Amino acid sequence: MLEELPEQVADDLLTNPLVAHLATATNDRPHVAPLWFQLHGEDIEVMTTGTKLANIRENPRVSVSIQKDDAGHPEWMVCIQGTANVIDDDELTKARNRELNRKYGAEPDAWLEENSLVRIEVGSVHVTVF
Q1: What is the rounded CA–CA span in Å between residue 86 and residue 17?
Q2: Would you say the pTM of this structure is higher than 0.85?
């Protein structure tokens, strides 16, 4: 995925604490919610729970949108479609949770107990630079 993106967009996705919006669906109804994310290789990883997690377990097809702006004026946006998989590995989940919390300035083990690790395999990427 990163090789398809302009260098500045790829750098921002890797290092800046941007908010992504994850779109899931169940019963032919969309559900969109903001969350933190990180890139690992060609995949996007998130920690999530609740409706998002339940929807992913029922229907793994998801979309993610991420935008960087300056005072509300967009600099770029990325829209991704992919397939989400819940990762049932306690040690990997703990490690990824710590990485994500470090990126966003949270306590290392914050939210670990209530969240699950989800890896999104990227299918398609659309990027717009303004």
Answers
A1: 22
A2: yes
pLDDT higher at 36 or 5: 36
Q: Which of 129, 4, 1, 119 is nearest to 62 (CA)?
A: 119
Average pLDDT over residues 80-96: 96
What does the alpha-carbon distance between residue 81 and residue 92 come to, in Å, rounded to a whole number?
A: 24
Residue from 62, 79, 65, 78 nearest 121 by CA? 62
Give me the CATH number covering residue 21.
2.30.110.10
- Beta strands (DSSP E) in the chain are 20-26, 29-35, 38-40, 43-48, 61-70, 73-87, 116-129
- Provide the domain limits for residue 86: 2-129
Task: Check whether 117 has a pLDDT greater than 90.
Answer: yes
Q: Which pLDDT score, from 0 to 100, does residue 44 have?
A: 96
Domains of the chain: total: 1
Specify the pLDDT at position 2.
65
